[in-house]
Design goal:
- By secondary structure, the protein is an alpha/beta fold.
- The protein is 56% helix and 12% strand.
- The chain has 9 helices and 5 strands.
- Helix 4 runs parallel beside helix 6 and helix 5 (105-115) crosses helix 8 (165-181).
- The longest helix is centred in the middle third of the chain and has 25 residues, at 70-94.
- The radius of gyration is 16 Å and the shape is globular.
- 38% of the residues are buried.
């Protein structure tokens, strides 16, 4: 196991960003890299990751539920998150594993906050309960423009992906604003580049972040 893999034991890293940013691809590569290094990696996704969380996910992403109010939406995401933290994330961190999550509170702040209109203060207050102190060591924001993102989406869009161009433009703004507000917790990666270049940028950032303690 190399030095960076050893350093990542017991850490919690989140990959987030607009729909179509390439998160799934980069998470798969990231997890494989460190498992090959001999590090135990716990991979989770949001919403979901537990039996109860997956049922909540089905409700949230079902296009038939287009009448869902924004407060209801936010609270359902947080309910799934609270269960995931207690059942999966907390135990894995305590075992010294690297936890890698596909979305976390950053997504709620962007989608239901900046784009959805809910006050950030409300979201943060509920998040404190849901997260129970287990905040990410680092959150990657894979940033893409609208045109690039649209070209990568599955034509069978879920309820969140169907919210429209203006909504998703605000989502992107929300993610970038978070990175400006908390530069010691967030790292923005240009995800319009090819997959290999994005992967290299992520690993360069990880080494810089955890080995030299210099931020992105």
């Amino acid at each position: 196991m190399d030095k960076i893999a050893t350093t990542l034991a017991g850490k919690f890293i989140v990959f987030d960003g607009p729909d179509g940013s390439g998160k799934s691809t980069q998470i798969a590569r990231f997890v494989q890299r460190y498992r090959e290094q001999g590090l135990t990696v716990k991979e989770v996704r949001e919403p979901g990751g537990t039996l109860i969380g997956e049922q909540i996910r089905d409700i949230l992403l079902d296009p038939a539920n287009d009448g869902m109010t924004m407060p209801c939406e936010m609270l359902l995401y947080m309910a799934s998150r609270a269960h995931l933290v207690e059942q999966e994330i907390k135990p894995a961190i305590e075992r010294g594993e690297l936890v890698v999550a596909d979305r976390f509170v950053s997504a709620t702040l962007a989608y239901q906050g900046t784009a959805g209109g809910l006050p950030v203060e409300w979201i943060q207050q509920v998040a404190e309960v849901a997260v129970a102190g287990f905040w990410p060591s680092l959150t990657f924001i894979l940033d893409v423009d609208d045109q690039t993102a649209a070209g990568r989406l599955n034509p069978l869009l879920d309820r969140m992906e169907l919210k429209g161009k203006a909504f998703h433009a605000k989502v992107r703004e929300g993610f970038l604003e978070q990175a400006k507000t908390w530069p010691d917790r967030y790292c923005v990666i240009d995800a319009t580049m090819d997959e290999n270049t994005v992967e290299k940028a992520i690993h360069k950032a990880v080494e810089k972040w955890f080995l030299t303690m210099n931020f992105c």
